[in-house]
Design goal:
The chain is of the alpha/beta class and 438 residues long. It is built from 16 helices and 17 strands. The chain has 2 domains: 58 residues; 259 residues, Rossmann fold (3-Layer(aba) Sandwich). The strands form 5 sheets. It has a 9-stranded mixed β-sheet, with helices on both faces. The chain has a two-stranded parallel sheet with strand order 1-2. Helix 11 links the parallel strand 7 and strand 8. It is globular, with a radius of gyration of 21 Å. This is FlaA1/EpsC-like NDP-sugar epimerase.
Length: 438
């Protein structure tokens, strides 16, 4: 027993506490907020014990993975990326998180909230997820303040209005379409959200004088072969182009972060695997040798926060994720840990746009060290000479819902990208929708 509730900050600092668990479901909401601020002052994240009713109703979430041997699933030790210094870019500032209702976005909100921002604005087009998140963070969800923002990032006028009214100083952009096989079939929707949406947010951030902007990208943006990878690569290039302008003007700092696959996120490999095991299998895997880089939600968000702290403008940050993991090995390790060691596996074939092995860096990119020993950076590389003109053609194709024109425009903007439309053969007819490689 280290002390009472009033001594939380002192105890957390003295012992280097990284997570504070509030295991008092009946605690008044005002006391919950006070303790969250006290934990944030010590650089600690906060976790809440849900009420009995919520615990009965909720679905399995990423934090339930703590009962598994995560190191064994990852093929490496789990890393704690974000340090106390992250507080310097969050505390006392107005912070906006897009895609706040998603797995990465909601974890970002939890950890940002722990660092005591002046305001935390949570933006999503799904009002139900926002309501649940506010209830979790504040212990109540009266919907009477500006913390919840319902908006579509593709709506330029609405985004400009939000930035004008709320004046965010730090922006974490997690909103995106991310399902690789579906985006192969619907490239115009990928362009509207992943490219145009990012362009609109960057433009609004520049106009509003945002201090720091961090884009959530993906390892599929490195030498992309899919619509998902191509659209996220263009999002990186948009951030880079504007970062250069912002740096010259001495205004904001714009950067990006690439993730591998995230364990425990909504619709991720583990959640689909658990469902297939629950229904008796078989488990579907695209190819016996397919590999992916994996990280936990906590690692991913820690990387985002560190990127926000270390960025100087234009970088893409990547976590040192060790060796890629064969998905069949991960499936077997997971099955063994939940006492289903004889899991049958059915191989369905790689789908359009999928790689057998992912890379964290393009062959044209240099891996650069940063102040964090487990985080690397790269300059985002040279984009097309006429990025603005190419984007205009791309947006016109997407606005007209012309899939083939959108694919052609992507190839013009990214000459190394050779994405093709999926066929209706056996490869694509596998039991979708499954996450990448699964």
């Amino acid at each position: 027993m280290l002390g009472g509730l009033a001594e939380l900050t002192e105890v957390a600092v003295r012992h280097g506490v990284q997570v504070v668990a509030l295991a008092i479901p009946g605690l008044p909401s005002a006391e919950v907020r006070r303790l969250a601020r006290a934990a944030g002052a010590a650089g600690a994240a906060v976790r809440y014990l849900p009420s009995f009713l919520v615990a009965l109703q909720r679905e399995v979430v990423g934090s339930d993975m703590r009962t598994l041997d995560v190191n064994r699933l990852l093929g490496r030790r789990e890393l704690h990326v974000a340090g106390h210094d992250v507080r310097s870019v969050i505390a006392g500032r107005r912070v906006l998180v897009t895609g706040a209702g998603g797995s990465i976005g909601s974890e970002l909100c939890r950890q940002v909230h722990a660092f005591d921002p002046a305001e935390l604005f949570m933006l999503d087009h799904d009002e139900s997820n926002l309501h649940r998140l506010q209830l979790e963070l504040w212990g109540e969800a009266l919907l009477t303040d500006d913390s919840l923002v319902i908006a579509d990032i593709r709506d330029r006028a609405r985004i400009r209005q939000i930035f004008r009214d709320l004046r965010p100083e730090v922006v974490f952009h997690a909103a995106a379409h991310k399902h690789l096989p579906l985006l192969e079939r619907h490239p115009c929707e990928a362009v509207k959200s992943n490219v145009l949406g990012t362009d609109i947010l960057v433009e609004a951030s520049l106009d509003a004088g945002v201090e720091r902007f961090v884009l959530i990208s993906t390892d599929k943006a490195a030498d992309p072969t899919s619509v998902l990878g191509a659209t996220k690569r263009l999002a990186e290039l948009i951030v880079r182009a504007n970062a250069r302008d912002a740096r010259n003007l001495g205004t904001g700092v714009f950067s990006a972060v690439r993730f591998g696959n995230v364990l425990g996120s909504r619709g991720s490999l583990l959640s689909v695997l658990a469902e297939q095991l629950r229904s008796g299998g078989p488990v579907t895997v695209t190819h016996p040798e397919v590999t992916r880089f994996f990280m936990t939600i906590e690692e991913a968000v820690g990387l985002v926060l560190e990127a926000g702290r270390m960025a100087r403008g234009g970088e893409v940050f990547v976590l040192d994720m060790g060796e890629p993991v064969r998905i069949v090995d991960l499936v077997r390790n997971f099955a063994a840990q939940v006492n289903a060691p004889e899991v049958p596996i059915r191989f369905t074939g790689l789908r359009a746009g999928e790689k057998l092995n992912e890379a964290l860096f393009s062959v044209h990119e240099e891996r650069l060290p940063t102040a964090h020993p487990k985080v690397f950076a790269t300059e985002s590389g040279q984009g097309p000479e006429d990025l603005a003109g190419g984007l205009t053609a791309l947006y016109a194709a997407a606005a007209g819902n012309d899939d083939e024109a959108a694919r052609r425009a992507l190839r013009v903007l990214l000459p190394g990208y050779g994405g093709t439309a999926p066929s209706l053969g056996a490869e694509v007819a596998a039991p979708a929708p499954y996450p990448d490689g699964f």
